[in-house]
Amino acid sequence: MRSLRSANGLPCEVLSSMLGVAILLAACGVPLRAQSGQDPQASASLGSPLHLQDYAPQASSSAGFLEQCATQSGCSVPAFLVKHIAWTAKSQSTQAWEDRGDEVPRDDGPGQSMEAKTRRPKPMDRNRTIYYKNKLEFGLDVGWLPINIPFVFDFLLGDTYDQSGLKYTLVPVMASLRWHLDDIRGPLILRGNWDVSFTLSATAFPRGPETHYFSYIMGIRRNFVPRRWIVVPYLDGQVGLGLIDAKGPLGVEYAQGQNFTFTLNLGSGLRYNLSPRYAVAVGMHYMHISNLYLSEPRFLNFGINNYGPMVGIDVRVGRHHRD
Question: In this predicted structure, what is the pLDDT of residue 119?
């Protein structure tokens, strides 16, 4: 229900409080009006007390009225009455905002504009607590790569897209340290950040003449981070070197020609952020192993090229002040 207002715009409840002040002051023997025609400022300079009635016509509300009166050295309003009238004015103002269905503004000081008081804050983009410069993460990824394909960059080497007579299945287990290089930036679908990874990998061979492969690889990943998405696409690439138990020198046809090899890894997928500290990822991963023709001409370089699904978990290392 809207408050009743008097002709000069003041809430009736405030006016009633002011009337009570006047009655109480009169009962205490305090004059209620300055001399007719006398300027209030002049009265103050002459030592005469300034009173509520002198300033009431100049105030647009009870709060403004009190502010004008209380700043004068001769104001004779008791402190407890000042607090009472100020509380009444604040209550009426709050009720008016609620009657209109508006959000009640915070009182952050007299210098704040009404527009600033009523402006609603923008929702926080929680991804900025997940992807930021110099963040460190530990990642553990496990893959199942049963699909054999030709080397994806054969066209750059002038080779045809042929496959050897051997079929492999690879199960890589990768422990990585990820370092985020920058904060989130970029336009539209390119918005995101970069991280680099340093990885130790152990790969088992459930199918194929070789049985295991150990490698060290390094790479870079692009995280595509739309605003306030908790599922984030990524693309990454890694290169490295390692050791395999090559069976080519033992006479196995199409097997690897030497133990020392190089590796190329490409991947893409989706990362789901459980919190600023924990995330899980799922995607597709391609893995290439070969000796870069170092075993030729004695042993041919056939290489291994497999891809399949990979899942992983990422855990932030240490704390960050954005939590």
Answer: 62
